[in-house]
Amino acid sequence: MNGIDTVGPQLSVLGAAGLILVVDALMPQHRRMLPFIALFGLIVSALWTVSWVGRDFAPADITTFDGTFSLDQYSAFFYFVFVGITATVVLASIDWVNREGRGQGEYYALVMTVCSGLMFLSASRDLITIFLSLELSSIPQYILAGWGKDKRSSEAGIKYLLVGAVASSLLLYGMALLYGATGTTLLDGIGAYVASPEAEANRGLLVLAMVLLMAGFGFKMAVVPFQMWVPDVYQGAPTPVAAFLSVGSKGAAFAVVVRVFIVALGADLLSDDWSMIFAILAAVSMTLGNVMAVSQTDIKRMLGYSSIAQAGNFLIGLAAVSGGDERFTLGASGVLLFVAAYAFTNLGAFVAVIAISQRIGSDQIKDYAGMWRRSPVLALGLAFCLVSLTGIPPTVGFWAKLYIFNAGIRADLGWLVIIGVLNSVVSAYYYLGVARQLFTGGDESTERVPTSPSISLSLGAATLGVLVFSIIPMPLMSAARDAAEVLTK
Amino acid sequence: MSTLFLASVGIEHFLTVGALLFCLGLMIALGKRNAIGVLMGVELMLNAVNLTLLTFSRFSESDRPIAGQTFVAFIITVAAAEAAVALALAMSVYRNRETVDVDQINLLKS
Questions:
Q1: Cys-Cys crosslink for A397: which of A132, A388, A422, B77, Cβ 3.0 to 4.6 Å?
Q2: CB contact under 8 A, A179 and B55
Q3: CA pair distance A178, A193, nearest whole angstrom
Q4: How many domains does chain A have?
Q5: Confidence band (pLDDT; 50, 70, 90) for B1?
Q6: Nearest-CA neighbor of A286 among A304, A314, A309?
Q7: Taking the CA of residue A280 as centre, how many other CA atoms within 13 Å lie in the half-sphere pointing to its CB?
Q8: pTM score, two decimals?
Q9: CATH 3.30.365.10 is right for the domain spanning B11-97
């Protein structure tokens, strides 16, 4: 299999981005077609990935471009997640972009570029390509966050950029030290060095590099203590962009963190240290995110804080590395399962928020009162996603939480799981508080809130995904497990 | 005399300068109130990383010492792209608010 074939899914997404720019520039009368070009590129990308799964390839053995990218089930799993996320976001953006009027081609092209960056990130096996893919996905996100015409949007853009630039620098210094200690930038090479006896002498340098990597990735994962930008950026950025950031950037960050820490830093020399640090970060993120979310009145800020708390849940899986024979696999597959479940649930909630806020012109939770009578579909979709985010059975959010808590218990992290369960109770207060608002009160306005076909389709796709995997979670679980085994074999 | 001086400059000197530059950049990035000032701090940090990478590459005994230098070429390119976007966003903030002081860019809060 040659190099181009292994990055085909990314190239078809990037190709669609280029085509969008050309059509936008040369055929302005066909601007309505732009989102459909984007969707076409995403479908080609998904089919390309499917075609691999059909062929019998030995997972993790196929690397390309001098070992810097891999073609394995781990990256394929994330390709599907990112393509699904991007398609939903493109559909949910159509109304907003049409109303905004300007820069339509650029908007879709940037969204597609971010998507290709996220996909490259989940396939990278080398520090250089990790850095490049991270920036390929980040720089367009800075632009998108500052896309709106208002003050808040440009404020969100500059805040996101400044914080992201400092985080990238920390990450790069960590990578430089890692390169210095091990003499290679390939994750496999670093892993082999860390597992070898001579790594003992360099332990101090390796730990420093590891902490810097955690700080750099921590910003992208949006975990405490690197979370302060999250609520501001979610509130200020245009809502479709905030939806994209909350799932895409976070999902890719976890994809790369799982790969880097297990493949490169997974040896006993370091793994106890990082699993302990991740456990502490998980506990703090969950608690702080949930406590702050309770008092929010703006639904986008609330979702921002709740996404910090959810990132804490993901980290339980990363912390759970000492599971005997199943070392790594259970925790890592828990992270993957949680990323997929969270992505579609949170996206569904955001799409409903996009639809509602476009019509009522407000992001305040109190204005959502009585939405059930004004738009039953949106209210039901939003309520269902919020229930799943809380983790109430039998939703996919519940299965993901059960799986990751099980991984935690098997790794002797009982205290962390107890904190996680207590936090789920706290999160029920504000998630279900919003859900209750939707169905009660709000007698003053009975005006209908209509939805456009594209928003309905996007909300339908997200909630259908949540619904299907709530009823039959096994395929998703086994896919996550197969993907995680690639890293640990 | 100059050869003697050069012979006594080893890997640790370069790394120390790199670490000092990085800390200096971080202090500027965290302490400056002007958004452009923060960006200058970030540039300093990135150049400290470049120096560190080049040092490791120069003194490396690995079979692929070129990796560090490749990395530096990419970092320089990405830093330029990032600076372009940063200045455009700073312009947009300035047009909206007449200031790039990060303490006064504070509309978003709970």
A1: A388
A2: no
A3: 11
A4: 1
A5: very low
A6: A309
A7: 7
A8: 0.93
A9: no
Residue listed under structure tokens 């896919």? A479
**8 Å CB contact of A173 and B109:** no
| CA distances for A174 relative to A127, A169, A178, B34, angstroms | 10, 9, 6, 26
DSSP A75-99: HHHHHHHHHHHHHHHHHHHHHHHHH
User: If you average pLDDT over residues A49-61, what whole number do you get?
Assistant: 65
Q: What pLDDT does residue B7 have?
A: 65
- Tens digits of residue pLDDT in A160-176: 999 999 999 999 999 99
State which residues form the domain around A390: 3-488
A183 in Cβ contact with A168 (< 8 Å): no
Q: Where are the domains of chain B?
A: 11-97
ipTM of the complex: 0.92
**pLDDT for res A363:** 84
Query: CA-CA distances (angstroms) from residue A22 to A32, A33, A110, A139, B48?
Result: 14, 12, 14, 21, 39
Provide the b/e sequence for A55-80 (b: ≥16 CB within 10 Å).
eebebbeebbeeebbbbbbbbbbbbb
Sign of CA dihedral A97, A247, A11, A161: positive
Q: Which of B39, B74, B81 is nearest residue A128 as measured by Cβ atoms?
A: B74
CB B82 to CB A165 under 8 A? yes
Which of B92, B97, B106 is the mutation pick for testing A, counting most A CBs within 10 A? Answer: B92
Total count of residues recorded for chain A: 489
